[in-house]
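name: query_chain
kind: protein
chains: 1
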Amino acid sequence: MNRALLLLGWASVWCASSLLSAQSGSARDSTSRTSIRLERCSALTQSRARAALPALSYRGTDVRWAEWPIEVGERRLPVRIVVVEVDPQRVQLELTIARDGSALAGWSLDNTPSDAVLAVNAGQFTDEGPWGWVVHNGREWQRPGRGALAGAITIDSAGRVTIIDASEIETSRAAGSVREALQSYPLILRGSRAPNALCARDAIDQTHRDVRLVFATRADGRVLLLLSRYDGVAGLASRLPIGPTTPEMAEVAWRLGAEHALMLDGGLSAQLLVRDSTDELRWNGLRRVPLALVGRSKRPMAAADKKP
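structure:
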């Protein structure tokens, strides 16, 4: 799709959404929302007692998912966070590099394998393809990129999932135990705190709002995928580019028990699929991407249970 036309379309929708947002106080449903408000980013860098996890109604078996209604900022913008919890002991995660023969191609949820229980766009990308470090099936496809807030997701041969910061990437490469790896940015939580660099002046745009996608890990080794969707006016126009700021998304991840958290490409790219024997839910994106992360159950579904 022509980028100029796409941006023009978003601008038209944004104008309409301004009218919707103005009515948000009266037009929201009656669902109780958790308020996410930050007076200063630096509060995220401090050590804090872990708050009780929000009480969410999870569905699913090998992959569990729920939705968390929140409101963000002074205008109390209604947002819904899709929360996906993955146990790497039960689900094998691996990258998918979209290719057409020897050339890079585009990937979307339509390309999800029929036996997958999870699929999500992965990393960042440029016009040439994925940005930064990529390892697939033990082979390094691309060398690491550089950036103070860059981080990486690694998966070893035992399926253990780790989020590391930029200073640890070379050590991980030298160890030779990485089966899958992808790089992204910014790193928004490290040891349950935001990196100091996240709140440094001019490091990131701390006020920009957009669709957000985060990959996080808890202390127990479980993986969280967090996708934001605008939730104004009975859920209309959920893919509008309205959502948490980057610091607010760090707070969201922390409240959900994340120890380490790394943002993936949000905005138009953000797309997520979860599936079990009875349900398949999709949150589609608006553009194809070169790299995806796919999860398969280590306890294969019966053939009759698999989605066509």
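note: Residues 3-305 form one domain.
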